[in-house]
Amino acid sequence: MKSNFAQRSLTGFFFVGAVVGCTLFKEWSFFILMFVINFLCLLEFYELVLPDKSWIEKYLGIIAGSITYIMFASIFSADLSLAWYYHLIPIFLVIFIIKLFENSHNEFSTLAFQVLGLLYITLPLVMLTKMGFFNSFEYSASLPLGFFLLLWTSDTGAYLAGRSFGKHKLFERVSPKKTWEGSIGGLLLTSIVAYTLSRFEFFDAISTIDWLFIGALVVVFGTFGDLFESLLKRNLHIKDSGTILPGHGGVLDRFDGLFLAVPAVFFYLLFTN
After folding, report:
1. In 6-120, where do the E strands start and end?
2. How confident is the model at residue 201 (pLDDT cuts 50, 70, 90)?
3. Largest CA distance in the chain
4. Could you give the CA distance from residue 179 to residue 108 in angstroms, rounded to a whole number?
5. CA 265 – CA 143 distance, rounded (Å)
6. Are 65 and 117 in contact (CB under 8 A)?
């Protein structure tokens, strides 16, 4: 037990340090971070949902997701013009046309999972990258870093409150350990951190009210994201999405809340700013 806790703590320390460091350091380090997360999550996802498929069928989605991320990141930083959005068309054309040559007798289920990976993983990471260039072609770490801090706070608050006070199950069919008390604890702690962030000049790109709303969205939709991945693993009869992070499982396990929380936060920012 102590060994596992030490392993989890050490992995968590380097994991958080890498994310915070890459987000704060430079525009290019943030791009590399998002690209690596996108690549590893897509790899884990396709290994899980397409276990018996050929490497071509698995890597087709990874290649498409990687190209899509690089293209959008380049557009956000003004290295490419907006006209490059249209290059999404040939990417999807190739994904569809190549099905004619697979001859696996379940081409459409493979296609569905390939497209789902792009929508579930790549698109939210593109949105998170855009948050670093919100209303500007100049990179600012305040929004993406604030998002990460609130997401981690939500997880920590939910874990501590759930462990101490949890009695009423939140969604027992999908995740037996999650409780309403944990979610409320996560919301309270995240609200405190959101307010605290808003008092620092570094995070003043948006108002205190915006940070509080974003904190609430992160808690609600981060929980949904966690539940969605739990449902996926339950359907696949597995405990973890991978083993790349000692003591923590896979990369998908660490970023599951992000994939539904980012679109909710991004939509809020578009709607209010």
Report:
1. none
2. very high
3. 59
4. 37
5. 10
6. yes
